[in-house]
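Hi,

I'm pasting everything inline rather than attaching a file, because the server keeps stripping attachments. The sequence lines come first, and each chain or strand is labelled.
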Amino acid sequence: MATQEVEATEARPPLSKNLAGGGRKPTDVNPLTPYLFMAPYLVLFGIFILFPVFYGFWISLHNWDYLLPGKPWVGLQNYIDLFTPGSPTSGFFWQSMEATGKFTLFSVPLLVVIPLLVALILNQSFPGRAFFRTVYFAPYVLGVAVVGILWRYLLDANVGLVNYYLGRLGLPDDIAWTNDLPWAWVALVGPTVWWTLGFNAVIYLAGLQDIDPALYDAAKVDGANRWRRFLHVTLPGLRPILLFIIVITILASANVFGQTYLITEGAPGDDTRSAIMYIAEQGLENFTMGSASAMSYVLALCLAVISLANFAIFRYRED
Amino acid sequence: MARAAARTESEKVRRSPQQLARLTLSYSALILLTVVFVAPLLWMLSTSFKTNLEATQLPPNWIPQDFTTESYATIFSTGETQTPVLRWFFNSMVAASAHTLLVLVTASMAAYALARMRFPGRNVAFAIIITTLFIPQFVFLMPNYLIVDFLGWLDTLLAVIVPGAAGAFGVFFLRQFFLSLPHELEEAALIDGASHLQIFLRIILPLSKAPLATLAVLSFLVNWNDFLWPLYVLINPESLTLPPGLANLQRSYTTDYAIVMAGGVVASIPVLIVFIICQKYVIQGVARSGLKG
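And the predicted assembly:
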């Protein structure tokens, strides 16, 4: 039985080679078949991904006002305006970039460290761990709109639960979370951590389970305590996952929109208006789409540089 | 010998409380965190069954004293209204289901060709598709708005069903799985005279139930929750899906929190049900997306 199987698998490769090499597959003589399989997706991909990347850049080279008939060519003027202090857009744009930058700076460390701690606890074997994992992941499936309206209520200065329970703990109970600094940052970062902690923790958990248990045993034999095992086995084993988490969390934070739209509405003033929020306002409410497109390419370029820098730092450390 | 045995014995006794302490600490942290995660959701549910007066009362009643369904009656009323929540629910259901179906069909076909056939241009096509995974979504905001407008899809559900299905994730995800299937599968079928379409439908797809389910659940959740895009391409109150609808609700009923929370409950229940039934697929999908990075 076993020898027959070996023979069968050994006999097969030449056969398949014949098939591929001769190109005479019994029924599939039509060379168009693969393209027909690709076609439905490629139509979507062409219209809504590939073309728009270039079309968006083309728009950014024009004074493209959706509501006006003429869309005069302005070359790089939209970009130059963004880098010219005192132009109508540059001040607001860089203010919104600063808001996005601050949000990213405050949220990413929390979203890298806390989910790792949660994953380390959940990676032990004890009854109920699947239950906890499910509970922590649950907010992630809700979507930013639900998270936004819910936390807007919880953080309401007068009737919100957050201020009420702070008061019960003897802390100030009249903080204007949604329209005062620095509290507005807490009102944006806190719910974001609540919302996405489980997502990162699940990715960490998968990474932890991929680390070879033999490495831990070897470290134990060498007399390494828990902390040293974490430092010398867990962290190096998690390196690719850590890089992945950092990169996607930075990208997700830089895309912040729903929280600022629903929880703070950009307040106080425009201090928490995020870059995406400003781009959407300019392009899709005021319909100055040329300048809004230019902004989105500048933001995309910034994110590309940051992502590449992350990869470079991690590779450098690896050497 | 006896001394060694005694030592291990005492070690056991000494380690046990230590482990117990660690376990207690872990459980305390986990339970505290569970409260932080569950309480807001219960509060949303509880508030949705209160009068608006009670919703703004402190100290808070976790169990409504004046239990009422008037918030739901208000948001489900079908007359002239700026906030037709039932309509939004229906729109979201249609959009997320149609979107999911479109993703499954187009992505699985393309992934099959990319994984199981040789043809000129395959590697270039795959490289281009993969590269676009790294382009942030907001880059498409302006051009796709204009394209959707050109197609006459503004303010229709097509605008939230179709463009999102062009994303490369589904193709990438299914191709990975199709590559892992043994080649003997279709070679035998080809010799027996089967066409690629037959192989795809009768052999590959039935073997791919788990990854297809994962992709279906993720596509449904992402589409159901999408906020920014529908906020701008859907305009009239009757055209909205739930996420931009909730923003509308918050604007219309600023501090009528009982009503706003009822809207939140309506938007949450379907995804929580999908999550609880399909959590294996959701969590595996997310975990695997990390491993490939």
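Residues 2-73 of chain B form one domain.

If the labels don't parse on your end, tell me and I'll reformat.
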